[in-house]
Amino acid sequence: xxxxxxxxxxxxxxxxxxxxxxxxxxxxxxxxxxxxxxxxxxxxxxxxxxxxxxxxxxxxxxxxxxxxxxxxxxxxxxxxxxxxxxxxxxxxxxxxxxxxxxxxxxxxxxxxxxxxxxxxxxxxxxxxxxxxxxxxxxxxxxxxxxxxxxxxxxxxxxxxxxxxxxxxxxxxxxxxxxxxxxxxxxxxxxxxxxxxxxxxxxxxxxxxxxxxxxxxxxxxxxxxxxxxxxxxxxxxxxxxxxxxxxxxxxxxxxxxxxxxxxxxxxxxxxxxxxxxxxxxxxxxxxxxxxxxxxxxxxxxxxxxxxxxxxxxxxxxxxxxxxxxxxxxxxxxxxxxxxxxxxxxxxxxxxxxxxxxxxxxxxxxxxxxxxxxxxxxxxxxxxxxxxxxxxxxxxxxxxxxxxxxxxxxxx
Length: 410
Description:
Layout: H1 2-18, E1 26-28, H2 42-58, E2 64-70, E3 73-80, E4 82-84, E5 89-90, E6 97-98, H3 103-116, H4 131-135, H5 140-143, H6 148-152, H7 173-176, H8 178-187, H9 203-216, H10 220-232, E7 238-239, E8 260-263, E9 266-269, E10 284-286, H11 288-299, H12 306-312, E11 327-332, E12 338-348, E13 351-357, E14 363-369, E15 371-373, H13 378-389, H14 397-407
Parallel strand pairs: 8-15
Antiparallel strand pairs: 1-3, 2-3, 2-14, 4-5, 6-10, 7-10, 8-9, 11-12, 12-13, 13-14
């Protein structure tokens, strides 16, 4: 698992730098023909997307759920493979999945809300908000140099939090407490100077989460509920508990889809993982429907002003097209068309997630997966990562889905 995490970190950095058995497939389309882009019918688009999803599933490369929305309408929403193999419950749009690092979009938005309220500033050292770390000799150097902007675009240079053995299986609440994690990060040996280069790090969002709690005076989970989940009616979205396994229950409940590793024709349960320990970096679960509502809120400026939203999604080519909590770049599609997108990806254990939308909200692609193929070496791991996260390079299932939208005919 650690090897796979390293490969995905490399894939994220590369993308930033270079921009059961046969469970039934379910696909739902909005009623009626027409309205889809580029002169093709909606039915053609649905068939083309479904063909891509089925092909990847039949090749053992994808199990999970896919949603595509275009110009305000959901044109495809379906699942393949098992959400619960033992219970014979299939993946479907109604099942909850860990959304892993899509959580970082939520954290970044909370930061931007407080920036807009002038309670935070992106380019002020975090010691202004966490003064005890600015005064402690062990943490002062980092706290007085690292800013929120550095954290949100992964240029803080802080130690890699994922290098800590066993953290995502840790049940000791004192060790997983955000204050303790942040202290270890700020007192550790830096990997680079703040602002020098992009280095993916879940730890950046632990620090940002603690800043949010201190300045707002409320726990991170409460901020999520009051500022995002309740206003948007995201009833199927929330954080996994920190330091313990979520309660077990029906698929679609707090646990949702179970995680599996596919080995040949068999599915093995993923190794134990306490996803709540990712906290502000990756603890949320959700459904594709809730994520669609989230994306629509982002692109319609319901949660932030137009100016603050534009700043959140502004990317820097010299920093690998990293934006605040996302990436923003152009995807070169067949025929020479370039599609500007905002993208957030993530993985933990068997769970993998991808959230892609155009800045104007006219196109949304959401992919959530609960089954990871097994592999024996780094080359296989990289190929697997490209299947889901190869959009910047023009490869993989999401790229083929977007390509199908532009090439399907009547």
